[in-house]
Amino acid sequence: MIGRLNHVAIAVPDLDAATAQYRDALGASVSEPLPQPDHGVTVVFVDLANTRVELLEPRGEESPIAGFLQKNPNGGIHHVCYEVADIRAAADQLREQGARVLGDGEPKTGAHGKPVLFLHPKDFQGTLIELEEA
Ligand SMILES: CC[C@H](C(=O)O)C(=O)SCCNC(=O)CCNC(=O)[C@H](O)C(C)(C)COP(=O)(O)OP(=O)(O)OC[C@H]1O[C@@H](n2cnc3c(N)ncnc32)[C@H](O)[C@@H]1OP(=O)(O)O
Ligand SMILES: [Co+2]
C-alpha cells in the first residue's frame, strides 16, 4: 500500500527562525512561507535530494498542531507522509483493519495539491501518518 516517503514534517514555534536555520546553517533549499488556511498551518518546504522536510507553524485559533507545540514548545517531528496510489482504497482498507482515519474521512487537498488523509498516531506506534495520493 504505501510507496515513497513524500515528506517528514517538523512543527516549529517560529517558522522564520526555523527556515533561516535550514537555509543558512544547513545550506538547504527552502520555499517561501505558504499559508494553508484549510489546514491551520503555514508551511515551508525544504527540498532534499530524495524527499522533503515540511516546516509547520500554527495558523489561526484552531490549528491542529497547537496541542503538539504546547507539549513540545521547542518543536519536534510532527508526522511522516507516505504516498499511496489510491487514497480512498487505502483508507477503506485501513478502516477495515480498525485504524482511525482522522477528520470526516474525506480526503482534503494538501499542500502539494494532492488528496491527503491522516491516521491517528495512537494506531501507528505513536506516529502521526499522512497519506498523500501520488
Ligand atoms: C497543508 C497540509 C500539510 C500537507 O502535508 O499537505 C500538512 O501536513 S497539514 C498538518 C497539520 N494537520 C494535521 O496534523 C491533521 C491531523 N492531525 C490531527 O487531527 C491532530 O493533530 C491529532 C488528532 C493527531 C492530535 O490532535 P491533538 O493534539 O489536539 O489531540 P490530543 O491532544 O487529544 O492527542 C491525542 C494523543 O495523540 C498524541 N499526539 C498528538 N499529535 C501527535 C503527533 N503529531 N505525533 C504523535 N502523537 C501525537 C497526543 O500526545 C495524545 O497522546 P496522549 O498520550 O493521549 O497524551
Ligand atoms: Co504533511
Automatic annotation (TrEMBL):
MF-aspect GO terms: metal ion binding; methylmalonyl-CoA epimerase activity
InterPro entries noted in UniProt: Glyas_Bleomycin-R_OHBP_Dase, MeMalonyl-CoA_epimerase, MMCE/EMCE_epimerase, VOC_core
Short name of one Pfam family: Glyoxalase_4
Domain named VOC: residues: 4-134
Gene Ontology BP annotations: L-methylmalonyl-CoA metabolic process
Keywords tagged on the record: Cobalt, Isomerase, Metal-binding
Stretches of the chain forming a coiled coil according to its record: none
Family annotation (PROSITE patterns): VOC
Catalyzed reactions: (R)-methylmalonyl-CoA = (S)-methylmalonyl-CoA
E.C. numbers: 5.1.99.1
PANTHER family in alphabetical order: METHYLMALONYL-COA EPIMERASE (PTHR43048), METHYLMALONYL-COA EPIMERASE, MITOCHONDRIAL (PTHR43048:SF3)
Family in the record: Belongs to the methylmalonyl-CoA epimerase family.
Listed name of the protein: methylmalonyl-CoA epimerase
Species of origin: Limimonas halophila
